[in-house]
């Protein structure tokens, strides 16, 4: 059973949080991958669906000049119903603040699940700058609007009760997803997202995602930028929409993905479950080659 700890920080105390000791020590990786920028969102700390260990592994293997936290990092909706905060969730906060202390620029754009932090827009806590939206300029000069995206979700904005009902149904699916992946681990199989598979198969979900992407891209075009980076819908994506470059960094509940910018301005999505599976299979491959 996961160790549950009390949420050992408040917003005002974030500046001193890096002085604590993480439960999972930071791994001394010889060759950490370095990117110009990293975007992650929809971590949902405070819920059982958060793939905390996988995100910790990601944070221990990559660095960047700037990191954007694109909303729903902490799930305030879930924490109003019950307190769930394992030590690994503290470890994620510790790693983010440690990056800020080391000189990484951290920009936090709260979403609908962590909207309680929107009241602190414009302030800086422990090196974490809280903004409602941001403009990121890539190495090759493109201007990208960065936002969570819930403001373009009609259900979230106009029918809040329905959004909470959908959130409850989503939690049920994620519980099933955890049990399924526990069985898969026992069988030696890699992580697989049931909810991601369901979204791809359900016509209404596909239609909603497509409309969301088009609306967000249209708003970016109206603001005169070259592209837009969003979260919210838990679907990592890179595609052009009507002359606008649309990016979504995905989530750390279902897909476990991040969006990154290389130093030449090129962008890509990292699928961390696949990265971990490839890394874990590498020693076996090397052993087979040595035995051949």
From TrEMBL:
Record-linked Gene3D superfamilies:
3.60.21.10
Show the Pfam families listed in the entry: Metallophos
Q: GO cellular-component terms in the record?
A: membrane
Coiled-coil stretches:
none
UniProt keyword terms in alphabetical order: Cell inner membrane, Cell membrane, Manganese, Membrane, Metal-binding
MF-aspect GO terms: metal ion binding; UDP-2,3-diacylglucosamine hydrolase activity
Gene Ontology biological process: lipid A biosynthetic process
InterPro entries reported for this sequence = Calcineurin-like_PHP (IPR004843), LpxH-like (IPR043461), Metallo-depent_PP-like (IPR029052)
Residue ranges occupied by any Calcineurin-like phosphoesterase domain in the UniProt entry: 37-235
Q: Which PANTHER family did the record assign?
A: BLL8164 PROTEIN, UDP-2,3-DIACYLGLUCOSAMINE HYDROLASE-RELATED
Protein name, UniProt field: UDP-2,3-diacylglucosamine pyrophosphatase LpxH
Q: Which organism is it from?
A: Sphingomonas trueperi
């Amino acid at each position: 059973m996961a160790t549950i700890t009390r949420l050992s920080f408040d917003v005002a105390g974030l500046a001193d949080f890096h002085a604590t000791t993480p439960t999972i020590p930071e791994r001394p990786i010889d060759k950490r991958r370095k990117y110009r920028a990293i975007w992650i969102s929809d971590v949902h700390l405070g819920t059982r669906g958060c793939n905390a260990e996988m995100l910790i592994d990601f944070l221990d293997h990559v660095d960047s000049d700037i990191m954007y936290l694109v909303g729903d990092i902490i799930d305030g909706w879930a924490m109003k119903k019950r307190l769930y905060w394992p030590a690994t969730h503290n470890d994620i906060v510790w790693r983010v603040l440690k990056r800020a202390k080391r000189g990484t620029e951290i920009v936090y754009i709260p979403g609908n699940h962590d909207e309680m932090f929107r009241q602190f827009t414009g302030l800086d806590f422990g090196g974490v700058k809280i903004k409602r939206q941001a403009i990121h300029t890539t190495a090759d000069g493109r201007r990208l609007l960065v936002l969570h995206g819930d403001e373009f979700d009609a259900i979230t904005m106009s029918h809040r009760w329905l959004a909470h009902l959908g959130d409850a149904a989503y939690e049920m699916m994620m519980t099933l997803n955890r049990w399924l992946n526990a069985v898969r681990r026992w069988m030696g199989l890699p992580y697989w997202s049931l909810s991601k598979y369901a979204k791809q198969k359900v016509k209404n979900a596909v239609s909603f995602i497509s409309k969301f992407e088009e609306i967000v891209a249209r708003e970016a075009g109206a603001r005169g930028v070259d592209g837009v980076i969003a979260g919210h819908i838990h679907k990592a994506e890179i595609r052009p929409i009507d002359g606008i470059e649309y990016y979504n960094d995905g989530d750390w509940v279902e897909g476990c993905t991040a969006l990154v910018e290389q130093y030449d301005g090129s962008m890509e999505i990292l699928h961390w479950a696949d990265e971990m599976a490839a890394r874990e299979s590498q020693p076996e491959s090397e052993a087979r080659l040595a035995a051949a």
